[in-house]
């Protein structure tokens, strides 16, 4: 069933299985009557930004992930610091790292013009991820909608829940299990690392001093190691950017898994999926590497499942008028638009 005039050409549309939900009542046609142009507006903004910033689709998918893993998919990551809010934007996995916050604000501005007070910032994050998959030639993610926005943020939980790029497989599985996500979800969602960039800072130990050994990570292909050392020299600029996928850096595809098979996973947390001896993730990596349809199907199902974590519906939370502040604070400050506080880089485990 199609609810909007959002046309997707040349993509694999996959609906996936039943999502994990906190008794959420989300619906694909939630805005059919109240804001029927919502998909088109989100697409228009993200597509325009992506013309000059091809990294943005990957950044928006990651922003959605970092929101959902903290308090659920409630746009808590968008809240700025106030007297009563300790922003998640300065948590260690987010600080000087997350991108796309201003794009979300651009979308919100356009939606407030078209249908004021209707579309939540949480749903904007969701739709931005959906559009980003499309723009990166990935699957069409038919997310159900109707999320509402949180009144709080939780920096402590952001530091605790978001997987780190140096996590081993046991740690990765535990972080995903907390969110109700299983091993297949872990491997499928990690496929978002088939596009985007990471700063040298987060791979230097793998290149020069893995686990304090003074040597590189033995699971890293030696030729690839030399290439990475050229981009990230020891003692060089830590903010140099490296493509997650050296073959198709701006395309969401199965090449991520093929890279793992030849020891070209960029982060330790990537390569762990294939190089951990006897791991049950190895067969899933092989499956996704051998068939893009299989990857797209699982990626779609896992994204939708993740998108239903801890959502607020009904009368819970609110529909923020401005994504960086709860409505009470926006009214106090008489805010029309506000820049978010953290807007550079792209790194983490997804």
From TrEMBL:
<keyword id="KW-0479">Metal-binding</keyword>
<dbReference type="GO" id="GO:0042744">
    <property type="term" value="P:hydrogen peroxide catabolic process"/>
</dbReference>
<dbReference type="GO" id="GO:0140825">
    <property type="term" value="F:lactoperoxidase activity"/>
</dbReference>
<feature type="binding site">
    <location>
        <position position="245"/>
    </location>
    <ligand>
        <name>Ca(2+) 2</name>
    </ligand>
</feature>
<feature type="binding site">
    <location>
        <position position="163"/>
    </location>
    <ligand>
        <name>substrate</name>
    </ligand>
</feature>
<feature type="binding site">
    <location>
        <position position="253"/>
    </location>
    <ligand>
        <name>Ca(2+) 2</name>
    </ligand>
</feature>
<dbReference type="GO" id="GO:0020037">
    <property type="term" value="F:heme binding"/>
</dbReference>
<feature type="binding site">
    <location>
        <position position="72"/>
    </location>
    <ligand>
        <name>Ca(2+) 1</name>
    </ligand>
</feature>
<keyword id="KW-0575">Peroxidase</keyword>
<comment type="similarity">
    <text>Belongs to the peroxidase family. Classical plant (class III) peroxidase subfamily.</text>
</comment>
<keyword id="KW-0560">Oxidoreductase</keyword>
<dbReference type="Pfam" id="PF00141">
    <property type="entry name" value="peroxidase"/>
</dbReference>
<feature type="binding site">
    <location>
        <position position="248"/>
    </location>
    <ligand>
        <name>Ca(2+) 2</name>
    </ligand>
</feature>
<keyword id="KW-0964">Secreted</keyword>
<keyword id="KW-0325">Glycoprotein</keyword>
<comment type="similarity">
    <text>Belongs to the peroxidase family. Ascorbate peroxidase subfamily.</text>
</comment>
<feature type="binding site">
    <location>
        <position position="76"/>
    </location>
    <ligand>
        <name>Ca(2+) 1</name>
    </ligand>
</feature>
<feature type="domain" description="Plant heme peroxidase family profile">
    <location>
        <begin position="25"/>
        <end position="327"/>
    </location>
</feature>
<keyword id="KW-0106">Calcium</keyword>
<keyword id="KW-0376">Hydrogen peroxide</keyword>
<keyword id="KW-1015">Disulfide bond</keyword>
<feature type="active site" description="Proton acceptor">
    <location>
        <position position="66"/>
    </location>
</feature>
<feature type="signal peptide">
    <location>
        <begin position="1"/>
        <end position="24"/>
    </location>
</feature>
<protein>
    <recommendedName>
        <fullName>Peroxidase</fullName>
        <ecNumber>1.11.1.7</ecNumber>
    </recommendedName>
</protein>
<dbReference type="InterPro" id="IPR002016">
    <property type="entry name" value="Haem_peroxidase"/>
</dbReference>
<feature type="disulfide bond">
    <location>
        <begin position="35"/>
        <end position="115"/>
    </location>
</feature>
<keyword id="KW-0349">Heme</keyword>
<dbReference type="GO" id="GO:0005576">
    <property type="term" value="C:extracellular region"/>
</dbReference>
<dbReference type="GO" id="GO:0006979">
    <property type="term" value="P:response to oxidative stress"/>
</dbReference>
<comment type="function">
    <text>Removal of H(2)O(2), oxidation of toxic reductants, biosynthesis and degradation of lignin, suberization, auxin catabolism, response to environmental stresses such as wounding, pathogen attack and oxidative stress. These functions might be dependent on each isozyme/isoform in each plant tissue.</text>
</comment>
<keyword id="KW-0408">Iron</keyword>
<feature type="disulfide bond">
    <location>
        <begin position="200"/>
        <end position="232"/>
    </location>
</feature>
<dbReference type="InterPro" id="IPR000823">
    <property type="entry name" value="Peroxidase_pln"/>
</dbReference>
<dbReference type="InterPro" id="IPR033905">
    <property type="entry name" value="Secretory_peroxidase"/>
</dbReference>
<feature type="binding site">
    <location>
        <position position="67"/>
    </location>
    <ligand>
        <name>Ca(2+) 1</name>
    </ligand>
</feature>
<feature type="site" description="Transition state stabilizer">
    <location>
        <position position="62"/>
    </location>
</feature>
<feature type="binding site">
    <location>
        <position position="88"/>
    </location>
    <ligand>
        <name>Ca(2+) 1</name>
    </ligand>
</feature>
<dbReference type="InterPro" id="IPR019793">
    <property type="entry name" value="Peroxidases_heam-ligand_BS"/>
</dbReference>
<feature type="binding site" description="axial binding residue">
    <location>
        <position position="193"/>
    </location>
    <ligand>
        <name>heme b</name>
    </ligand>
</feature>
<dbReference type="InterPro" id="IPR010255">
    <property type="entry name" value="Haem_peroxidase_sf"/>
</dbReference>
<keyword id="KW-0732">Signal</keyword>
<feature type="disulfide bond">
    <location>
        <begin position="68"/>
        <end position="73"/>
    </location>
</feature>
């Amino acid at each position: 069933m199609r609810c909007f005039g959002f046309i997707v050409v040349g993509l694999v549309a996959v609906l996936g299985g039943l999502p994990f939900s906190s008794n959420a009542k989300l619906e694909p046609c939630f805005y059919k009557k109240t804001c029927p142009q919502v998909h088109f507006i989100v697409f228009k903004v993200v597509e325009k930004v992506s013309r000059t910033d091809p990294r943005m689709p990957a950044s928006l998918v990651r922003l959605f992930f970092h929101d959902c893993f903290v308090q659920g998919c409630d746009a808590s990551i968008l809240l700025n610091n106030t007297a009563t809010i300790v922003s998640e934007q300065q948590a260690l996995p987010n600080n000087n790292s997350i991108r796309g916050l201003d794009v979300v604000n651009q979308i919100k501005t356009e939606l407030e013009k078209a249908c004021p007070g209707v579309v939540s910032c949480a749903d904007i994050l969701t739709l931005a991820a959906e559009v980003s998959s499309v723009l990166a030639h990935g699957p069409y993610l038919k997310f159900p909608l109707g999320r509402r926005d949180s009144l709080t943020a939780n920096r402590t939980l952001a530091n605790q829940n978001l997987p780190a790029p140096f996590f081993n497989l046991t740690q990765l599985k535990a972080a995903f299990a907390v969110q109700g996500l299983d091993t297949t979800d872990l491997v499928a969602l990690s496929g978002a690392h088939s596009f985007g960039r990471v700063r040298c800072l987060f791979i230097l130990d793998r290149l020069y001093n893995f686990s304090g050994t003074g040597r590189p990570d033995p699971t890293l292909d030696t030729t690839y190691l030399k290439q990475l050392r050229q981009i990230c020299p020891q003692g060089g600029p830590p903010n140099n950017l490296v493509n997650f996928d050296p073959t198709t850096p701006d395309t969401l595809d199965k090449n991520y898994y093929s890279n793992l098979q030849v020891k070209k996973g960029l982060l330790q947390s990537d390569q762990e999926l294939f190089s951990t001896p006897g791991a049950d993730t190895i067969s899933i990596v092989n499956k996704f590497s051998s068939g893009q349809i299989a990857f797209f199907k699982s990626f779609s199902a896992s994204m939708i499942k993740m998108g239903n974590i801890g959502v607020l519906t009904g009368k819970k939370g609110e529909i923020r008028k401005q994504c960086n502040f709860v409505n009470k604070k926006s009214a106090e400050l008489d805010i029309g638009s506000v820049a978010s506080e953290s807007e550079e880089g792209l790194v983490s485990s997804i």
